[in-house]
């Protein structure tokens, strides 16, 4: 049998070298994990709303009673898009989402994603140039994965013009920012065009547009990556002492 003798100093430096390699590998792995979570974002410019379903979006018009329109491609004759390839590159809703005098409750649900503290939703919205019939828009959150059941949207994050004033909804494209909170969880964000006493015979509701929606998902806190690295190094040290 062949025996190979390795002196203690040489063994020490060999283990130290391997430890340094492991450090780099651990932190590199942490970087990959951060990049993976950070990339769980979406941006939508509504150039063609017929592609929304294939991109993970969902629409439900639950107005009472339901009218003749749902969400539709923007109408450049009313106002042009905030951005995009065409002047109608936005999504719109109007008073015909209900009929007579009713309640508009038209949902536009974004793709499922990681929601939690550090997540940021931004979007642009506006109504007509000279509002005479007040509009309203809400942003809701569900923490039930990819569910599209409106009962799962239990947290309202934003309510634009809840008092139904003609000046409470912007008549130029205006940027809104919604900062999420809480533990990271899989869920959805949703826009709800919600107007009471609405419709062709109602006192409220006219026409709104939504454009340039962006969501940046939360990333793990630095402490999380540090814990991963320290755990790996502690394992190395235990093996070194053994």
The fraction of residues assigned to DSSP E strands is 25-35%
* Sheet of most strands: 7 strands, antiparallel
Here the CATH topology of the largest domain equals Jelly Rolls
Structural class: alpha+beta
Task: Note the overall shape.
Answer: globular
Integer count of domains:
2
CA gyration radius, whole angstroms: 26 Å
Spans of at least 5 consecutive residues with low confidence: 2-6, 29-39
CATH class identity of the largest domain:
Mainly Beta
Mean pLDDT: 85
CATH structural architecture of the largest domain? Sandwich
**Helical percentage:** 10-25%
Can you count the helices? 2
| SS elements, strand count | 13
Instruction: Give the end-to-end Cα distance, rounded to a whole number of Å.
Output: 25 Å
N-to-C SSE string, H for helix and E for strand: HEEEEEEEEEEEEEH
Overview of this protein structure:
The protein is of the alpha+beta class and 242 residues long. It folds into 2 domains: 8-37 and 222-241; 42-216, Jelly Rolls (Sandwich). 21% of the residues lie in helices and 34% in strands. The protein has helices at 8-38, 222-241; strands spanning 42-44, 58-61, 64-66, 72-73, 91-94, 98-109, 113-115, 120-127, 137-142, 153-160, 174-179, 185-198, 207-216. Strands 2, 3, 6, 7, 9, 10 and 12 form a 7-stranded antiparallel β-sheet that branches. Strands 1, 4, 5, 8, 11 and 13 form a 6-stranded antiparallel β-sheet that branches. Helix 1 (8-38) runs antiparallel to helix 2. The chain is globular and about 70 Å long.
């Amino acid at each position: 049998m062949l025996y190979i003798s390795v002196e203690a100093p040489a063994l020490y430096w060999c283990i130290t070298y391997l430890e340094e390699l492991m450090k780099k590998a651990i932190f590199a792995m942490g970087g990959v994990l951060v990049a993976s979570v950070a990339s769980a974002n979406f941006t939508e410019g509504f150039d063609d709303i017929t592609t929304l379903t294939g991109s993970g979006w969902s629409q439900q018009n639950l107005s009472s009673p339901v009218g003749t329109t749902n969400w539709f491609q923007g109408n450049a004759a009313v106002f042009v898009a905030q951005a995009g390839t065409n002047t109608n590159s936005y999504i719109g809703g109007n008073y015909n989402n209900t009929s007579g005098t009713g309640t508009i409750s038209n949902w536009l649900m974004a793709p499922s994603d990681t929601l939690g503290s550090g997540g940021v939703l931004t979007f642009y919205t506006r109504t007509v140039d000279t509002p005479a019939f007040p509009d309203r828009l809400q942003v809701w959150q569900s923490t039930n994965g990819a569910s599209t059941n409106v009962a799962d949207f239990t947290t309202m994050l934003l309510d634009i013009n809840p008092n139904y004033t003609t000046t409470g909804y912007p008549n130029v494209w205006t940027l809104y920012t919604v900062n999420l909170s809480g533990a990271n969880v899989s869920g959805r964000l949703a826009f709800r065009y919600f107007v009471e006493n609405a419709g062709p015979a109602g006192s409220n509701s006219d026409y709104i547009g939504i454009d340039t929606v962006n969501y940046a998902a939360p990333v793990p806190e630095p402490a999380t990556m540090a814990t991963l690295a320290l755990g790996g190094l502690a394992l190395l040290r235990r093996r070194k002492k053994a």
